[in-house]
Every structure is written in structure tokens, then in C-alpha cells.
């Protein structure tokens, strides 16, 4: 493909993931319509799974008595379960729709206080998260615990290079995030040994690295083709574990969602700090997207991905936005899973009713207990299936997706013990 001619509205930040893996977990970027923006033909503000026009999968054929290749078109009802299959299927090829390429400007802000960015709606001003989302449509906040100012990235559609921007012709421009410093290595060793007392100081060091890195690399204001400003995570970037959830709500409620989360998260940080515990030492990442509207597909009769984290709720037509809440930490950190379990319990219970609903971000940690992520039998067996089915028509929820996937792989060739539990 000639990337100078075609592109996507938004994509995940890592550039080393496969297309198949991204589609399996309906990966996403961060984009809603900006002020005055009209969506291009071929775009979606939802997940990458919503761009699928057709796919070919390895499926069981009872007539042939063996596994064969079968191609599903987007209007085929059975494709609903394959559009985001979570690894319960094997896809050999896929056809995606694309749009005209766009040039983007990415500005980084590191001088806006967390209190202003995540303020309650009643006191939110021009520097609120929602105000940036409403204006540019493409935003990401990266906030390190115990620091005062997050790293806010704001992407705007800019056909021509702004005078103050630096043109970039390749991705991964934030080089300071893609290697481990001596200070980081020392801290990681302390955490692995069980000493987390240096966490607050380390978070300040981590944010200072961003501040100075943006200046020294001249990347606080960059411009170029979409992929060159959207891709910034490399395999050498520090690996962390993240718990992640999509909060489905109305665009008007974005600030309320992030403010509620920030208040609860900082409260739990304070609670654990009072116990002398620091289970969280990685950043919080907050992004926004639209939903997987079938009307975005360039074919008539397109089916909706049942297992998508951002599938619309027909019973809440006003819910048009997903706020993605991700909480990161080093996987060797003592007590991190209990912290996740605390936050996850609050998230599922808080974003309810006419306000919002919750779905897991499949590529992240969820179903957490004090022992480990993905181990809560209640969340795996009840909460998640109910969340996927809520508000959908009869025969168009979790059990239908499980039935479709099972019918095409009755021998569970494309499964594992965890998926057997999740889909059991």
C-alpha cells in the first residue's frame, strides 16, 4: 500500500503488533470528530475491527470432515463473531477499507495541571480533557502517579505544515521513551527486590524525562503523515502490565468520566501510600474513540462485531463515545493485582445506569483478583458476558458469539485453557 495516498483515522501506538493480533482484540487509537471535522469515506472512529470488509478463516467443515478455508463477507451474520474473536479463531487473510491519507500535527503539553485536566465538569475550563477532545478530537493523556502535570498529546488534522511544527518523515519520534535509563534500571531492580519506597520520587523522574526529552529532541510539536505521528511505541519501550477498560458514554460526559476516575484513582493511591505500599509505578493513559458503527462500513448490510469493546448500545442511542482508562505498572510490583481488583470493582459499579457502561479492553488486564489478572471467576463467567450482551437484541450477544465460534471450531483447536474458561 502507498501510505502517502491511504491511511487510517487512528491506530494503536505500538508499531510491531501484527494486523491479525490487532483485529483479534479490536485494537484502537484515539479519535472522535474534532470541531468542524467531517469523517472521510473509509474511516471509522471506532476500532480497527470495524474496517473489515471480508476475512478468510480456518473453519471445520462437517461435510469435508476436515478444517478448510472459508471467506466471510461483512454482511454475513456469522462474521459478527470473527470481527473481534479474541484468539478463538484463526484468520488467514483480511480485507480492510482505507481512507485518503491525512497529515497530522501532534502537540505535546506538559504544563497543564492534573487538577485542571481532570477537573469536575462544574469547574472544568479551557484546559480540561474534554475541551481538548472537543476541539481536536484526537487526544491522549499520560499521567504518572504522584506527579502534578500529565503529558498531554493533541493531534490535529493539518494538510499543510504549521510554521512552528517540525516535519517528521518516520515514526517513533519520542526516542527518550524507547530505552531504559540508568535511573530507571536501578528503580526496576529495587521494585523487583521488594523495595517500593522510591516510587513517588521515581514518578517525578519519569515525568522529568518526558519534559527534557521533548525539548532535547525537538518533538513537542511535530507534523507529518498520519503514521509518522501516531506510531511511537517500539519493542524497546519499557514493558508494563496495564489494566484497561472502555467506558461507553455520551460525548457530553467525557469530562465526568475522567474526573470520576482521577478522583478514585488518586484516593486509592493515597490509601495504599498510607500503608507504606506503592503498587502503581507506571502511567495512567486516557484516550477517547467513537464506537463501531456499521454505517461506517463501505458495504451495505454490514454486521456488527459482537465482542467489540466499543459496540454501540441500541438502547442508549446517545452513547456515542468510548473513554479508555488504562492503568500501568511493572509486573514485578508487589500488590499491583489487588490495586487493579479494587479499581476494577469500582469501575464496574460506578459507570452504570443512564450514565455509562463498561467493557473490558481485551488487550489489557481485567478480571483481576488479589492473586493475578484474568482470574476472577465472577467477572469472567458473569460480568463480562452480561456487559457484552447488555442492550443488544435477542440472539445478538455473548452466547451467540460463543455459539458461532464453537460451531466453526467444535474441536477447540483454536483455544487454550483460559479461552475455554472465558468462553465456557
What would your notes on this structure say?
The chain has 424 residues and is of the alpha+beta class. The protein folds into 2 domains: 96 residues, Uridine Diphospho-n-acetylenolpyruvylglucosamine Reductase, domain 3; 279 residues, Vanillyl-alcohol Oxidase, Chain A, domain 3 (3-Layer(aba) Sandwich). Helices cover 28% and strands 20% of the residues. It has 11 helices and 14 strands. A 9-stranded mixed β-sheet has the order 9-10-6-8-7-12-13-11-14. It has a 3-stranded antiparallel β-sheet with strand order 3-2-4, with no helix packed on it. The protein has a two-stranded antiparallel sheet with strand order 1-5. A hairpin with a 7-residue loop joins strand 7 and strand 8. Helix 7 packs antiparallel against helix 8. The two termini are 40 Å apart. The mean pLDDT is 97.
What is shown here, in short?
By secondary structure, the chain is of the alpha+beta class. It has helices at residues 19-24, 114-117, 129-136, 182-192, 199-216, 226-230, 254-274, 336-350, 377-389, 398-408, 417-422; strands at 6-7, 52-61, 66-73, 91-96, 99-100, 103-109, 138-143, 151-157, 166-167, 221-225, 241-249, 284-289, 321-329, 357-360.
